[in-house]
Amino acid sequence: MASRKTIIGIIGGAETSQENYRLAYDVGKYIAGNGAILACGGLSGTMEAASKGAFDNSGCVIGFLPGGEKSEANAYVHIAIPTGLGIARNILVVRSSDALIAFPGSYGTLSEIALALNLGKTVVYMPGTWDLKKIAPVDSALFKEAFDASQAIGLALNSLKGGGAI
Amino acid sequence: MASRKTIIGIIGGAETSQENYRLAYDVGKYIAGNGAILACGGLSGTMEAASKGAFDNSGCVIGFLPGGEKSEANAYVHIAIPTGLGIARNILVVRSSDALIAFPGSYGTLSEIALALNLGKTVVYMPGTWDLKKIAPVDSALFKEAFDASQAIGLALNSLKGGGAI
Amino acid sequence: MASRKTIIGIIGGAETSQENYRLAYDVGKYIAGNGAILACGGLSGTMEAASKGAFDNSGCVIGFLPGGEKSEANAYVHIAIPTGLGIARNILVVRSSDALIAFPGSYGTLSEIALALNLGKTVVYMPGTWDLKKIAPVDSALFKEAFDASQAIGLALNSLKGGGAI
Amino acid sequence: MASRKTIIGIIGGAETSQENYRLAYDVGKYIAGNGAILACGGLSGTMEAASKGAFDNSGCVIGFLPGGEKSEANAYVHIAIPTGLGIARNILVVRSSDALIAFPGSYGTLSEIALALNLGKTVVYMPGTWDLKKIAPVDSALFKEAFDASQAIGLALNSLKGGGAI
Predict the structure, then answer these.
(1) Mind listing the pLDDT tens digit for each residue in C26-51?
(2) What pLDDT is attached to residue A163?
């Protein structure tokens, strides 16, 4: 479809280190720079950093909020979806995304990585997040490590080429 | 928020008359013309008509699909959300919208009207859809009839003024 | 399946009249007496009345709660499902039920009637609830009025005979 | 509440080894023997094994199915909930359970472990499943290894003592 936009999901903790905040900001900037939409959980930390990066680069940010109020969204979300589904909203971040980039985070982030792999979506993961390869034979075509923002967005976008994923 | 976009939801049958197709197309056009985003179920009939109207007027259309594939969306959806939730996705059309405009439709449309009123959202309804006022004392501040596209979008946008709804 | 239980859903307001409380209590009693499980939203009013009726007749009650805590359930729910999905939990009351009995209620009840009819499930409705036949040509094989508890449960159970519904 | 039943969730692969089938069968038997209800995803493999164990011991099994048809459930499910939510139904297995026992499984099982830990629920895990402790500092009060069926059910039930979890 001429109209259909590529969507890249950003997952990671609502609390984050300064280093990862900067990294997520840069990834958000690249997502916007490549004409893709950024999807996330719409809250603070990693989600806010990436949202701000996309926002500052004239991108579009969609936030799937756990609660029922749009005011829950961080200041850089253009399209706030107050799902009212609680943690079950994680599936929407995953399903809306054509590929995902995972930052360090807690169990919520882990659930999103798991759901994405379950649905056969590429997850590019940054250092410090759940490195599942160490405990199980995870498909390396779907689960790929990146070490900086440019590599992350490159791997995510490359995974969509020639694919029915979009 | 400077970034937050107003979202107007369009609900109505996946099959529709030529007259309602034209009406929904015009409403979609007005939504885009007013700088709002159009949310809908992403499929055919009323949803497609309104999507095309917004698309043709350089708007942005978000479609909450019942299935798990983005290809299910009509050709005018920019942001396809393949929820995989089946009919339960109706709640997302309702919750994402700041106000809704209801066209004639079947039980799915009725469920969306009911959910919107339950959540205290304004529903502007076009002739021929479920006229609940005939069977129960529905709050007329929330449930308002419109007779043409311009009146519908006017009532929907007016309902958001001065409100915490956005 | 030898193991599969028939489930009858009860929908209706969280606030109810004394008369409808008694009626819902009797319907709950009959559901248990017929060896069926009662499904409902697990809260007060109509839901509590029917739950108590089933409970007092040694039945089994499943409550799909909007919030995330089992303590939200009324005292007669055996199986509390704290869905955390908010009003979206209505779809679970409907989908789990083989047939539904509708009491007077507000928009939440209306959404459940609409979702049930959308899924082709029989809805037996008691006087005073949303009488959709007055505003649209609703399929009378699915949407049937009952005037007392015994008739209601009779119509609900009869609708399941010979059917793939169970 | 006098009426409220304890619910133990069983999660694990839809395909399973003979050894784990037997183990899950035994766990299901113990769950029923302790008067608890077994919740699971209602399908084959681990879910079927545990369901059969509970069924054979006069227990009660609730299955949260991804699809919309009760016929999808294995033969030992008493209460079939055809959620129609796809993989999003995993949250219902987790939320309905007071504690969970995890068998080896793929990404779906991992998502359930993650969601359970996110909600502060005890997950007793059997050898061969996702051993998250090897890659992150998981709270050992919530995530406990068991080596046989009797130990698993013991740890799960013990975790509920003195708690508001039930």
Answers:
(1) 999 999 999 999 999 999 999 999 99
(2) 53
pLDDT along chain A (166 residues), means of 10: 88 97 98 98 98 98 98 98 98 98 98 98 97 94 97 97 56
Query: For residue C164, what pLDDT band results from cuts at 50, 70 and 90?
Result: very low
pLDDT recorded at residue D3? 84
Structural tokens at position A144: 């790929």
Q: Which residues of C touch A85 (CB under 8 A)?
A: 84-86, 88
State whether residue A88 sits within 8 Å of chain D by CB. Answer: yes
- Residue A97's nearest CA partner among A115, A76, A72, A79 is A115
**pLDDT given at position C64:** 98
A87 touching C (Cβ < 8 Å): yes
Contact, B73 vs B42, CB < 8 A? yes
Report the distance separating Cα B157 and Cα B5, nearest Å: 12
ipTM over 0.85: yes
Average pLDDT of chain B? 95
Residue of B72, B83, B85, B90 best to disrupt the D interface, most CBs of D under 10 A: B85
Packed helices D107-118 and A107-118: angle between N→C axes, nearest 10 degrees: 160
* Confidence (pLDDT) at B164: 44
Q: C114: which chain B residues are within 8 Å (Cβ-Cβ)? A: 107-108, 110-111, 114
Contact (Cβ atoms closer than 8 angstroms) between residue C77 and residue C60 = no
Q: Which of D50, D69, D37 is nearest to C60 (CA)?
A: D37
Neighbouring C-beta atoms of residue A17, cutoff 10 Å: 14
Q: Which chains have 3+ CB pairs within 8 A of D? A: A, B, C
Chains with 3 or more CB pairs under 8 A to chain B: A, C, D
Is B96 close to A78, i.e. CB distance below 8 A? no
B35 φψ region: left (φ > 0), alpha (ψ -120 to 50), beta (else): left
CA atoms within 13 A on the CB side of A59: 31
Q: How far away is chain A from the Cα of D24, in angstroms, using its nearest Cα?
A: 21
Residue B69 C-alpha from the chain's centroid = 21
Neighbouring C-alpha atoms within 13 Å toward the C-beta of B140: 5
Cβ contact, residue pair B61, A3, below 8 Å: yes
In this structure, the strands spanning C61-65 and C37-40 are parallel
Averaged confidence pLDDT in chain D: 95
* Burial profile A90-106: b = 16 or more Cβ within 10 angstroms, e = fewer: bbbbbbbbbbbbbbbbb
Structure tokens at D63: 């299955």
Q: Residue C125 corresponds to which amino acid?
A: Y
Tokens of A72: 């829950």
Cβ atoms C79, C61 nearer than 8 A: yes
To the nearest 10°, report the CA torsion of D84, D85, D86, D89: -120
